[in-house]
Every structure is written in structure tokens, then in C-alpha cells.
Amino acid sequence: MCRWLTCSLVMAALALAVSSAALSAEQTRTVEVNGVTLPYVDEGKGKPVVFVPSAIADHRVWEPYREAIASEHRFIAYTKRYFGTEPWPDDGERFSTETHAADLAAFIRALDAGPVYLVTWSFGGMLAPLVALENPELVRGMVHYEPFIPSLLAELPEEMQAAIAEDNNKYGPAMEALETGDEVEATKLFIEAVFQRSAGGFEQVPEYMQTIYLDNARTVPLQMSMSRPAISCDDLATLEQPTLILKGEYSDLFYESVAGTMAQCQPQAELGVIPGVNHDGTFNAVEDFTAAILDFLAEH
């Protein structure tokens, strides 16, 4: 259970987040890093907490967390290169996890905010370890919700890898739509698959999240074609930062396996479960995730 003040702030922030008017009125800043301009929100004082967006998303996904986190700490949420609604700096040729990780490190330095706590979701959970491995002085701790690190599957028995591959067939329709060049339809189908929704389930996602996903649909071809870093268990074993890894109670086999493997590999990591959700926990369990973040910050 979250504290009364935290719950009240979270509910107020969530009410704002679901309002498109509130999102459009959100005050953002910009900073130049590595030759590009990144939008971000920076509010509050105290421990600096940088929120890293997931795939097909930008800093707006963290709006429901801003008020509660900023009431006790420094809340920072940024938009990665190529994401959001601004024009791209090029045709996407530099889209890669290495680019995004380098940008995140430069972003932290540009704000003179380090060492920071990193809060991630999905794809963001691949970037944070890369930054911590290459620039340990910038990262004080990490909180991951269902991190996306496919290379960790190599640590699993072959039969488990086969079961995950079979479950991942659910992304087939999205890939077919992408092959036809329909980025919007592909985005909707990807979201339905990852959140374990039936056909048409995209409409069940909160309206503000639908807007964010469709605004970032143009990034889907880049994300599907990029190479992924081979982060290994041995790599994670060298990390000394305290880390909380969370998964949903109804997490699918891929995210459950990655979260469990990551927790076993990283010596300073703890594994927790958010009840009643799957990969959608960041917007369907805002109170629980916020409480987990605040408890982690209080302890570390």
C-alpha cells in the first residue's frame, strides 16, 4: 500500500495525464547533446531520478509519475533521439542502442545531474545497464519494469528458449503489417500483442497512451531493424549499483525470463512483482509502481 500523500499525488497526476489538454500544456525544456536536441521535463529537488521511456514512446509516458516523484525528489524525464513529435535530425541512420545509450550519458552530464537513479520500462531497460557499464560514475541506482534485454535469453535452457520463441509468434501480424509499410497498423498490433490484448484491444489502452504510441509509430521500422547489444550475465555481474527489477503478475514468458535472469546475474539486484498487470503495469498500476520507486529511493 502506498502512503496517503503518495496515493493522493499519484491519483491527481493520473487525472492530469489522461487529459490531452494537460499533456499539451506540459512545460518542456530542451538540451543539446551529441549534436541533437532532446526535450525533457525537470521538476523538484533532491535525489535526481531520470525516467527513460520505453519503445514507441517518449517522455510523456512518465507524466503520471511526475507530481508524486517531484514532491520528494528531482523528477527528470526525457525523449530519446528520433522519438516524440519533432522532425528527425537525419533519416534514422544513427538509430541504435549505442546511440541512445551515449545520448543518455551525455544528457545526464549536460544537466550536471549525476550520479542519478535511472527508472526504465522495457526498451529503456536495455539502455540503463549500458550506461552503467560504460559510465558507472553517472548511475547511483536503477529501477527497471520488465526490461527488454533479449541477449539474456542465451543464459536459459534450450527448451525455455524454444517456448519463448513460440510465444513470440504473437508478434507475427504486427511484422506482416510492417512489411506492407503500414506503421500505424503495425504499432497497434504490437501494442495488442505485448499487452496481451485481443484483436481491437489497442482501443482499451488509455487515450493518452494511444496518442503517444501513434505519435511514435514512425520509429517502429527503425526499432525492428536495429541490432541489439549482447549484454551478458557476466556483464551484469560487474554492476555494483543497487537495482530493483519489477515484473507484472501476468508477465509473459519473455519478460518474466529476462527479469528473473537479470536479477540472478546482478549481485545488487532485487526482484519484485506488481500484482494484477502484465507489461502494461506502468500505466495500469501507477500507484504500485510509484510506491516501489519511492521505497527504493528511501532505502538507497
Q: Low-confidence runs (pLDDT<50, min 5 residues)?
A: 1-25
**Average predicted confidence as pLDDT:** 92
The largest pleated sheet is described as: 8 strands, mixed
- Residues in β-strands, percent: 15-25%
Sheet with the most strands: spatial strand order? 1-2-4-3-5-6-7-8
CATH class: Alpha Beta
Total domain units: 1
What structural class results from the helix and strand content?
A: alpha/beta
What is the string of SSEs from the N terminus onward?
HHEEEHEHEHEHHHHHHEHEHH
Give the beta-strand count.
Answer: 8
Shape: globular
> What oligomeric state is this?
single chain
Gap between N and C termini: 20 Å
Number of helices: 14
CATH topology: Rossmann fold
Please name the fourth-level CATH homologous superfamily. Answer: Alpha/Beta hydrolase fold, catalytic domain
Q: What gyration radius follows from the Cα positions, in whole Å?
A: 18 Å
How is this structure best described in words?
The chain is of the alpha/beta class and 300 residues long. The protein has a single domain (4-157, 231-299), classed as Rossmann fold (3-Layer(aba) Sandwich). The chain is 44% helix and 16% strand. The chain contains 14 helices and 8 strands. Strands 1-2-4-3-5-6-7-8 form an 8-stranded mixed beta sheet, sandwiched between helices. Strand 1 and strand 2 form a beta hairpin. Helix 1 runs antiparallel to helix 3. It is globular, with a radius of gyration of 18 Å. The protein starts with a helix and ends with a helix.
